[in-house]
Specification:
546 residues, alpha+beta, 2 domains, 4-stranded mixed β-sheet, 18 helices, 21 strands, disordered C terminus
């Protein structure tokens, strides 16, 4: 077929980037999966690729929401039992062989105090995120907008918050504080069966929560826990899959089972008092107040850092009393521990109210999983997910790029003999102007393939002016606290609409003009002994050069 006929064939999708495509790509993918040969990598993709798929035939949104809320309330019942158990456990209760509850808790306290100190910093600054709050919908909730106008706060938080203590509000007008009962519950899609629960926090509570979380995050760096980087956990999971010496644990509903009592017993009293003041002690669910048994929910600005700290202390204390040496690494509820203390640690977690997810926790065999990395005998078999029907051009691009990345795990962008026929078939329906480039983060914008793309897809946006005063205050706050990465909004807020438009694309593979033979691939610099080559069939591989 000639190049001009290619253009004619590919012209129709260009007429409207947002129209539904005529081909049932999703069914073709399902048929392709059924024909994959039986290997660990292919079998794992089969069992996971449609795990989070949602369309009109899956469970309706209102049912998924009801299930999520019911599950959350069941976790609150667990938290109530945990609070009662921990508050009434005698110190001489046997927690592990030859280990009493009292000394175990005291060791945890000692570890936590050595990491974060006895007092929260009185010079720490908070920050706002771009998420929704109790006073603002997500479309009206850039950080800059939250620095001005009305701001929600709980009565307990109002007792510890004074705008005069924060230089950001000493320059211009202070926020108009409105007292509210607490956070507001909402749900977001999780998988085809159930949603995930999260909470919108009052504005000022969130501001202070993020400041507290930032303090804990910085302190954890002292013991080698970097919550800015998931890479360490992934590499340790790979090592564990190869040697068997490291176990990976994932906890069920970890954020929702950090009970009030465990924070009270393990955290320094001044830290506990402060965190207790700035958290939401009440959550509004469908208009009804719920008094929390948990300490903080998903959506609270310090939950991730707090649970990371608690899990690290529990794991390190278990290792101390069991005499276990080895690596301990924590990223939220993704935990890496020595395999030989798996059962002891699982028992400790259960007693303190947490439940290892047996389907995603591994201490035997050749498989490990942590922080999005999935490994079999040291080989990366991480799957990708099809979350919705492949019925639009953007979804087709995303699938093809994910297929290429999955196929080439450990071999750059190499398409193997199994992935190539499907990729080749589907890519025929991608407009020529969107083909080309080697940036793996292209996602829904352009097709990673030989050559350079002339165009890319970009969400259509609608501009909305931001308050200059808020932009200035956000900038001032971020400059004062060097721990925050500057995220100052433009003066125009761009609301993403459900449409796509064609834009001019940037070039892909380019030589570096530094008098060397090095080549740029995305953001990675290659050594002078390697050369990237596009094969005629669309495979990208590395060959050694003299």
């Amino acid at each position: 077929m000639t190049r001009s006929s290619d253009r004619r064939r590919n012209k129709s999708p260009m007429l409207d980037q947002n129209r539904v495509l005529p081909t049932d790509y999703t069914t073709i993918v399902r048929d392709w999966l059924n024909e994959l040969p039986p290997t660990p990598k292919y079998d794992y993709l089969k069992s996971n690729v449609f795990e989070k798929f949602v369309d009109s035939n899956t469970v309706p949104a209102d049912v998924r929401r009801e299930r999520a809320i019911a599950k959350w309330l069941s976790m609150e019942a667990v938290n109530e039992e945990t609070n009662l158990r921990l508050s009434t456990t005698p110190e001489d209760t046997v927690l592990l062989p030859n280990v009493r509850f009292g000394p175990f808790v005291e060791k945890c306290r000692s570890i936590i105090s050595s990491i974060i100190g006895e007092l929260p910093s009185d010079t720490a600054l908070g920050s706002f995120s771009g998420g929704a709050s109790t006073s603002r919908k997500r479309t009206l909730s850039t950080p800059a907008e939250k620095y001005v106008g009305k701001a929600h706060i709980t009565s307990a938080c109002l007792d510890v918050f004074d705008p005069a203590d924060y230089p950001v509000w000493s320059v211009l007008s202070r926020p108009e504080l409105i007292t509210v009962e607490g956070a507001s519950m909402f749900t977001v899609p999780k998988n085809a069966e159930i949603d995930r629960v999260a909470c919108k926090e009052p504005d000022i509570n969130m501001f202070l929560q993020k400041g507290a979380g930032s303090q804990i995050r910085k302190c954890l760096r002292k013991v080698g826990i970097n919550l800015q980087d998931q890479g360490r956990n992934r590499e340790l999971a790979r090592e564990g899959s190869r040697t068997g010496e490291l176990a990976t644990l994932d906890l069920s509903s970890a954020s929702d089972t950090v009970s009030h009592e465990i924070v009270f017993q393990l955290m320094p009293i001044c830290w506990y008092s402060y965190l207790n003041s700035i958290r939401s002690q009440v959550i509004v669910i469908n208009g009804q107040r719920h008094f929390c048994e948990m300490f903080s929910s998903m959506g609270n600005g310090f939950t991730f850092e707090l649970e990371s700290l608690l899990f690290y202390a529990l794991a390190r204390t278990t290792a101390y009393f069991t005499g276990t040496k080895g690596v301990i690494s924590v990223y939220g509820d993704d935990l890496i521990i020595p395999s030989r203390m798996y059962h002891a640690f699982a028992h400790v977690l259960f007693y303190f109210g947490f439940s290892p997810n047996n389907a995603k926790s591994f201490h035997e065999g050749p498989f490990r999983e942590s922080c999005g990395g999935h490994y079999w005998n040291g080989n990366d078999i991480t799957p990708f997910f099809v979350r919705r029907p492949i019925d639009r051009l953007s979804e087709l691009l995303l699938f093809l790029n994910n297929l290429r990345i999955w196929s080439g795990r450990g071999q750059s962008l190499f398409l193997d003999d199994v992935a190539w026929p499907l990729w080749s078939l589907f890519s025929q329906d991608v407009p020529l102007s969107l083909k080309g480039g080697d940036v793996t983060s292209s996602g829904r914008t352009q097709l990673v393939s030989p050559g350079n793309p002339r165009k890319r897809l970009q969400p259509v946006t609608k501009d909305k002016s931001l308050p200059p005063e808020g932009v200035y205050l956000q900038s001032l706050n971020e400059i004062q606290d060097r721990s925050f990465t500057p995220m100052v909004d433009d003066f125009e807020k761009r609301k993403r609409l459900q449409k796509l438009a064609l834009k001019r694309a940037q070039a892909g593979l380019e030589p570096i003009d530094d008098h060397s033979s090095k080549v740029v691939l995305g953001r990675c610099r290659l050594s002078s002994t390697q050369k990237w080559t596009w094969h005629s069939c669309g495979m990208l591989f590395v060959e050694e050069t003299a």
